[in-house]
Write a structure and sequence with these properties.
Elements lengths: L10 E4 L8 E4 L5 E2 L4 E10 L2 E7 L8 E2 L2 E3 L6 H13 L3 E12 L4 E10 L10 E7 L12 H16 L5 E4 L4 H4 L4
Parallel strand pairs: 4-9, 8-11
Antiparallel strand pairs: 1-2, 2-3, 4-5, 4-7, 5-6, 5-10, 8-9
């Protein structure tokens, strides 16, 4: 950040009074510009035991598989964001059910929140951000070609819960994945 979005003045990185972290502070109007993690909402959508997956058409990780998920917008709830992403990426209308996983990714300044979802009918298609979309039996999930560690975590927890007949909420932190260490995004 170079300029203040309030007055256009230059900003400098410093610890404001009463704070303990460096922040961008406008040298003219003294506005503090906080930068906080972004929220990603998604869902593991199920139809008769099969899971809806999308092959990404956009970076990062174009060509890799994911569950429908994306950045939350202002003025929407987490479940609304997860359902919207499913419609945008897979042209699928889902009923958002219970919370599945909360994954903190400090290296990416993101928090991923994944829900269980029900696809009432096998109606879906390829959205603008997807190359392919399909329903997969758990045994056919392309584990080696999943786009993100948070997606793998959510899918593995979902399947474990299904096998145990429970609906737990899973919380974890994920360190920088190997592919990310050599990739600037």
């Amino acid at each position: 950040m170079k300029y203040c979005n309030q007055c256009g003045g230059t900003v400098e990185l410093r610890i404001p009074a009463g704070d303990s972290r460096e922040r961008f502070v406008c040298v003219t109007c003294e506005v503090i510009h906080y930068q906080n993690p972004k929220m990603v909402a998604g869902c593991v959508a199920n139809y008769q035991g099969k899971i809806l997956l999308c092959k990404r058409a956009i970076e990062p990780r174009s060509g890799y598989w994911t569950i429908p998920a994306g950045f939350m917008e202002n003025e929407e709830s987490l479940p609304q964001a997860a359902a919207r992403e499913c419609m945008e990426e897979a042209l699928a209308s889902v009923e958002i059910q219970s919370l599945l996983a909360v994954v903190s990714l400090p290296y990416a300044h993101q928090v991923h929140i994944m829900f269980r979802a029900h696809l009432a009918e096998p109606i879906f298609g390829v959205g603008e951000e997807s190359l392919e979309v399909g329903l997969y039996d758990p045994d056919d999930i392309p584990w080696a070609d999943l786009a993100f560690p948070s997606v793998e975590y959510a899918l593995r927890q979902y399947l474990a819960d299904q096998a145990a007949g429970v609906q737990n909420v899973h919380i974890t932190d994920i360190d920088r994945p190997a592919w990310r260490k050599s990739t600037i995004i």
